[in-house]
Specification:
Elements: H1 12-21, E1 26-30, H2 38-47, E2 53-58, H3 63-71, E3 76-79, H4 84-131, E4 135-140, E5 145-148, H5 150-156, H6 160-163, H7 168-174, H8 178-183, E6 193-199, E7 202-212, E8 218-227, H9 229-264, H10 276-305, E9 314-316, H11 317-327, H12 329-334, E10 338-343, E11 348-350, H13 353-369, E12 376-384, E13 387-394, H14 428-438, E14 442-448, E15 452-460
Parallel strand pairs: 1-2, 2-3, 10-12
Antiparallel strand pairs: 4-5, 4-8, 6-7, 7-8, 9-11, 12-13, 13-15, 14-15
Bound molecules: adenosine-5'-diphosphate.
Adenosine-5'-diphosphate binds next to helix 13 and helix 14.
Length: 464
């Protein structure tokens, strides 16, 4: 009559069978059942984690039964005798409890899901910010640091977590970054501010923006610093490179023109014979210019391919060294150079064959070129873990210590009496460096002036 659907079980076993078949909202359990007692039934129900609310009915209402039933997780205790109204009151209470319990469970699940989403979002944001190469600093309305990534902490000379909640004004004053303080004025200037700053030997592009809540109220400011030192350096490099390149073309062209002019002016008479040495010299200079164009093209090709996935090859070092040495055999003999190799057997380098030939060709060519007559040149190679180290050692004129750092720049040549008569365009080592770095290796040089130089290339070994 009250709208409940009621099913009855005469024994504990029957009750369990019913509970197996259906999901009940409320179970009213007699304390004494023909087979098992009510407490055992309750404990079985609890172990099955049923959502059913339970009420124990007993005539033997005493405190011990109540405690035992409560321990088994009973929701209500109804002593006999009771009136139908008492029973209905219990039913209503239990129904209400069940609804509340279900709602609480639903809320708990929703809460858990949104907490999880929040935590994921938070950790995504923080890993995103910390992985940025740019330095990022976020301050709140009270001008306290609420976020600083690793790059920013490093720049400000702090441990990342020590910056949190610190006053940004104190932090910037400490780091003596006055330029940055100008970007974060204390007054309500909320325009986007950008400027270029020099900090130590670095140049930064700095930007500060105000961020706002949904209601448009300013919540704080975000400051980002991008390191543009390298970009600036490259921008300055370009005109210098072009100027040098123009010079490298203009001076041989001028020389060729004067050589040709001798013939055009017929200053040595009408016969071709006397002019031949001049034309041969012009021809040699043209050869050098063609070589220069070839080197410039190599440089730009390497730069262009830098981004493309250069196909990786496995190149046998011994074969490569032998064929390069063959190319220089004549010069080695002419200069009476003692040439030696000491290569560990079976070395294979993870680099394109052509690239390794260019690298070794340039280094060996230089070693011979900058050796004095009757010098000595040696190529060593060995493997350590996954690295192969190749050394080209000469006992030549050596390099001034102050020039070692500039050796791999385009067009750099040492100007010394010893190098005056040695031909070259200063591009060989620049090409070597780019090829080595493209193959994920490195190149180093050590030299003692007047005693000789060692160029060391470390390249990845091919997987066995
Ligand atoms: P270059 O065509 O002038 O040889 P490189 O780029 O190969 O150009 O070398 C740049 C400069 O480095 C050379 O001009 C020379 O001054 C110096 N250099 C290179 N290799 C050696 C070496 N083995 N011994 C002495 N100086 C060297």
């Amino acid at each position: 009559m009250e709208g409940y659907v009621v099913e009855m079980a005469a024994t504990g076993r029957e009750a369990l069978a019913l509970l197996d078949q259906k999901c009940f909202d409320i179970a009213l359990i007699d304390y004494q059942l023909p087979d098992v007692d009510g407490l055992t039934l309750l404990s079985t129900m609890r172990s099955r984690k049923l959502p059913t609310m339970t009420c124990m009915i007993t005539a033997y209402a005493n405190i011990d039964t109540a405690i035992a039933a409560t321990r088994q997780g009973i929701d209500f205790f109804l002593p006999k005798p009771f009136s139908p109204d008492d029973l209905l009151g219990v039913m209503e209470t239990l129904s209400r409890h069940k609804r509340l319990k279900e709602e609480a469970e639903k809320l708990r699940r929703e809460n858990e899901a949104s907490l999880l989403a929040l935590a994921t979002e938070k950790s995504q944001t923080s890993s995103l910010v910390s992985s940025l190469r740019d330095a990022v600093l976020v301050i709140n309305r009270e001008r306290e640091v609420v976020l600083a990534n690793h790059a920013m902490a490093e720049l400000l000379g702090h441990v990342q977590k020590d910056l949190l909640r610190k006053s940004v004004d104190a932090v910037l004053a400490e780091a003596s970054l006055a330029g940055l303080a100008d970007l974060l004025p204390a007054s309500g200037d909320d325009h986007r501010k950008i400027s270029e700053l020099t900090v130590g030997d670095k140049i930064f592009f700095a930007s500060a923006v105000t961020f706002r809540g949904e209601d448009g109220v300013a919540l704080g400011r975000i400051l980002t610093l991008a390191d543009v030192t390298e970009m600036r350096r490259m921008a300055m490099e370009k005109p210098r490179f072009i100027r040098t390149m123009v010079h490298e073309f203009r001076s041989p062209l001028g020389a060729i023109r004067s050589l040709i002019e001798v013939a055009l002016d017929k200053s040595l008479g009408g016969e071709i014979g006397p002019y031949l040495p001049f034309l041969e010299r012009a021809d040699r200079r043209i050869d050098k210019m063609v070589e220069l164009i070839g080197d410039l093209l190599s440089l730009s090709r390497i730069d262009l391919e830098r981004t493309a996935t250069a196909s990786v090859e496995n190149t046998d070092l011994q074969t490569c060294v032998a064929s390069i040495a063959d190319l220089y055999r004549e010069k080695i003999v002419a200069q009476q150079i003692a040439f030696e190799t000491a290569l560990a057997p079976g070395l294979a380098v993870r680099i394109a064959d052509e690239d390794l030939r260019t690298i070794l060709g340039n280094l060996l060519g230089n070693a011979i070129k900058y050796s004095r007559d009757a010098g000595a040149v040696k190529v060593n190679a060995s493997r350590k873990d996954s690295d192969i180290t190749i050394e080209v050692v000469d006992a030549g004129i050596g390099i001034k210590p102050e020039n070692l750092a500039r050796l791999f720049e385009e067009f750099f040549r040492e100007k010394r009496p010893e190098t005056r008569d040695i031909e070259g365009n200063g591009l060989g080592l620049a090409i070597v460096k780019r090829l080595v770095e493209r193959a994920c290796g490195r190149v180093e040089v050590a030299s003692v002036l007047g005693q000789g130089s060692t160029f060391r290339v470390v390249l990845p070994a091919s997987p066995v």
